[in-house]
Amino acid sequence: MMWLLYIVIGIIGLAAVLYLLGNYTFWLPFRSAKLPRVVMLHQVTPHTEASGMNMPPEKFEQFLQYLVKRNSTFCFVSELDQYQGQKNIVALSFDDGFLDNYQYAYPLLKKYNAKATIFLATKIEGIEKLNAEQIQEMSNSGMIEFGAHTQHHVNLLKLSDDIAYAEMQASKQDVEALVGKCPSFAYPFGRFNEKHQQMAKDIGFKNAVSTRKKIEAYTESNQFNIPRVSTHGAMNALQMRIALAKGRYKL
Fold it and tell me: Which end of the chain is more exposed for a tag (fewer CB within 10 A), N or C?
């Protein structure tokens, strides 16, 4: 019977190792501090449980405190080219345009003097979203820059080229009508191909972010496919540090 006990212990040990390796990606290659950290976020609200979509205000403040402690320089996504080769560059980015970005994230961003980019899906349905007055207030503060995220938050791969182009172009025009400029774009659901990258360039966006969970140098080759650091509202302090060091804290 001892052999059975050893097998059980071995299985439990293997499961523990696999859990550790899957939820703490310390084994991934370290990324230089001279590479920008473009962070992907969505909601910041205490009214929804912590998830890949929501980082509650308390956790978001801890995240900002850590970034400030490591002497981060915050920039807009559109400014990444201005900081190439510099250390500890962080571009915080929020997708969709949730109302809680104004209610909870914005006060904390001001408190820690942290710039951020919000990508608006200007006609998205099914969420509580920012209104024109809030968007303009945030833009006028100099702390927030707005980008586009299509009008209806659509999967571009499921659209014809003409409709995809129209969604991207119209969202840029909507944001420009609100705040006067719209330099950056985010692909909804991270779904796009090389044609959509070319569309973003032709429409007049300066750059575009993806959902690739990596940390890379900002170059012409990924200017319209910028990777972002993956976050989760339930990250612990160690996972937070791993994410910023590696690009993702878990598989």
Answer: N
- d(CA 32, CA 20) in angstroms, rounded, equals 24
Q: How far is CA 210 from CA 115, 146, 184, 245, in A?
A: 19, 16, 11, 19
What lies within 8 Å, CB to CB, of 197 at 6+ separation is 208, 224, 225
| Tens-place pLDDT, residues 3-19 | 666 565 666 665 555 55
Using one digit for the tens of pLDDT, what is the confidence trace for 202-226? 999 999 999 999 999 999 999 999 9
Tokens 């910023």 locate to 244
pLDDT band at 249 (very low <50, low <70, confident <90, very high): confident
The CA-based angle 31-34-39, given to 5 degrees, is 70
Question: Does residue 156 register a pLDDT over 90?
Answer: yes
SS3 245: helix
C-alpha dist (Å) from residue 18 to 4, 164, 192, 236, 246: 21, 41, 32, 18, 18
Integer-rounded Cα radius of gyration of the chain: 19
Q: What is the pTM of this model?
A: 0.92
Quote the CA–CA distance of 55 and 49 in Å, as a whole number. Answer: 8
What is the helix (H) or strand (E) element at residue 41, kind and residue range? strand 37-41
Give the span between the Cα atoms of 100 and 129, in whole angstroms: 8
Which residues in 9-43 are b (16+ Cβ under 10 Å) and which e? eeeeeeeeeeeeeeebbeeeeebebebbbbbbbbb
Beta-bridge mates of residue 208 = 185
